[in-house]
């Protein structure tokens, strides 16, 4: 299998920030509009993109044609790195439910199954990805003689795929899925907008039997 984005992949050394004690990144800290925009710029045009028919042939899992006029011969998909960043951002926003309206609890104190399911899915996606890529960058330790304690040094060098190059490749192929009722059939774009209820309502999780968690269970 050859990934469509393989030509955009190169490896570069990256110095990881520790994430605390004065070595924070611009993505950290109390949320504000500027930080929200930085997070969105990481992935918002990489979740949905188009690839050519030739690139599609190399995929193990086949996908659908792009349901947008003018792109019917291309194929629709996205790079999982951007889905993972979306998931991480959802978890980040979950810590500030009033700012982002992301609370998992309903006004009556019960836990929203759909909100919980999204976060549970995101945590599982990130677990699988972390294990899949298994970063073998070596974390070192330092003895702090003045405090007589061992301190982990997490600001170490790692060998990484060049994220900026991959993001540029993906963003150049961005297509927006505004109409989820559109579908390419035999090379023709067909619009099912008048068929059935709102698409999002059909994709909501079916609450499992016995789901009765409340805010007291969190």
From TrEMBL:
Sequence intervals crossing the membrane: none
InterPro entries tied to this protein: UstYa-like
Keywords: Glycoprotein, Membrane, Transmembrane, Transmembrane helix, Virulence
Descriptive protein name: Tat pathway signal sequence
Pfam family, one: UstYa
Pathway where this protein functions: Mycotoxin biosynthesis
Family recorded in the similarity comment: Belongs to the ustYa family.
Signal peptide: none
Main location: membrane
Membrane topology: Single-pass membrane protein
Cellular localization per UniProt: Membrane
GO biological process, one term: mycotoxin biosynthetic process
Taxonomic placement: Eukaryota, Fungi, Dikarya, Ascomycota, Pezizomycotina
Species the sequence originates in: Cercophora newfieldiana
GO cellular component: membrane
């Amino acid at each position: 299998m050859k990934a469509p984005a393989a030509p955009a992949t190169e490896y570069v050394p990256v110095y990881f920030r520790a994430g605390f004690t004065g070595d924070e990144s611009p993505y950290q800290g109390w949320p504000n509009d500027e930080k929200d925009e930085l997070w969105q710029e990481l992935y918002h045009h990489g979740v949905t993109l188009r690839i050519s028919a030739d690139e599609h042939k190399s995929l193990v899992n086949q996908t659908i044609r792009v349901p947008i006029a003018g792109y019917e011969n291309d194929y629709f998909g996205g790079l999982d790195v951007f889905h993972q960043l979306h998931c991480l951002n959802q978890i980040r926003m979950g810590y500030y439910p009033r700012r982002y309206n992301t609370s998992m609890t309903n006004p009556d104190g019960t836990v929203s199954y759909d909100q919980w399911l999204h976060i549970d899915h995101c945590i599982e996606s990130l677990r699988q990805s972390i294990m899949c890529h298994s970063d073998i960058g070596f974390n070192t330790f330092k003895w702090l003689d003045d405090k007589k304690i061992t301190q982990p040094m997490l600001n170490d060098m790692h060998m990484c795929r060049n994220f900026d190059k991959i993001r540029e490749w993906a963003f150049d192929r961005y297509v927006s899925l505004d109409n989820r009722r559109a579908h390419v059939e035999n090379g023709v774009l067909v619009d099912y907008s008048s068929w059935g209820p709102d698409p999002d309502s059909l994709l909501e999780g079916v609450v499992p039997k016995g789901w009765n968690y409340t805010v007291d269970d969190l």
